[in-house]
Amino acid sequence: MQRQPSKRRQRQGSFAAIPAAPGTYALVLHLSRPLAISVGALGRIRLTPGYYAYVGSALGPGGLRARLGRHLRGPRTARWHVDYLRARVRPVGVWLREGAERQEHLWARVLAQLADGIVPRFGASDCDCPTHLLRFDRWPSLARFRAKLGRWVRRDSDSKIEVLCCQIRTISL
Ligand SMILES: [Zn+2]
Description:
The chain is of the alpha+beta class. The protein has one domain. The chain has five helices and nine strands. The protein has helices at 7-16, 63-73, 81-86, 104-114, 142-149; strands spanning 23-31, 35-39, 43-47, 50-58, 90-98, 117-118, 133-136, 160-165, 169-172. The strands form two sheets. A seven-stranded antiparallel sheet has the order 6-7-4-1-5-8-9. A two-stranded antiparallel ribbon has the order 2-3. Strand 2 (35-39) and strand 3 (43-47) form a beta hairpin. Helix 4 (104-114) crosses helix 5 (142-149). It is globular and about 35 Å long. The structure holds zinc ion. Zinc ion (ZN) binds at residues 105, 108, 124, 127, 129, 132.
């Protein structure tokens, strides 16, 4: 009988698929029951069950792999709003796009047009976006997001969005 890879190996495998390059990402999380949590300076928030997409960018050392590795592993200390959420809610997917240009605010606004709800000001302390955390009744549609985003960003051969964790897909814009 073939041995299953250990959980640790599976996790390392998924991290290895994430480029250590700068880029923008959406971390997709699934909440199966209502949740009330305290989120730093934002205070106490109540979340209804559904899918949540948190948008950020990773332009520093280690790029997307370092940042998403932190989100997927779960950070030991809470630094950003998303860390409080991540401590209680499971990530189920990642969308990412490589590129040194900061696109998180664009992504947050484009995703907000597709979302069923928003969590006001979450992850948006340092910008004037309504939020960086969007709520969806069902698994958010990458195809619809890609189509909307494609109207705003330059299409080039090396641009791509990937979904990791549950499924891995690579889509060129
Ligand atoms: Zn923003």
